[in-house]
Amino acid sequence: MKLKLKGQHFNRIEEIQTESQDLMKTLTRNDFQQCFQSRKSRWDPCINAQGDYFEGDGGK
Predict the structure, then answer these.
(1) Which residues of 2-41 are buried (b: 16+ CB within 10 A; e: fewer)?
(2) Which InterPro entries does the entry link to (predicted)?
(3) Tens place of pLDDT per residue across the chain (60 aa)
(4) Global pTM value
(5) How far apart, in whole angstroms, are the C-alpha atoms of residue 10 and residue 19?
(6) 20 to 30 Å CA-CA from 35: which of 1, 24, 45, 50?
């Protein structure tokens, strides 16, 4: 969603809300599943580090 709205300029909050809502209506179940899997792949290194500091991709 962020990439589809990137670079657009809005004059009013209502315009942002309308555009965001219209975009949300186009999302499919697969879009949500991909979003969740992407988030999970980002939180896995954090969980695996068990509180230790790390940088980058977690040593993959």
Answers:
(1) eeeeeeeeeeeeeeeeeeeeeeeeeeeeeeeeeeeeeeee
(2) RNaseH_sf
(3) 788 888 999 999 999 999 999 999 999 999 989 988 999 888 888 888 887 877 765 555
(4) 0.54
(5) 9
(6) 50
Nearest CA to 34 among 1, 57, 5? 1
Structure tokens at 30: 């697969």
Residue 5 in contact with residue 19, Cβ under 8 Å? yes
Q: Distance between CA 59 and CA 23 in Å, rounded?
A: 36
Which helix or strand (DSSP H or E) is residue 50 part of? none
Name the DSSP class of 1.
Answer: -
What are residue 55's phi and psi, to 5 degrees? -125, 160
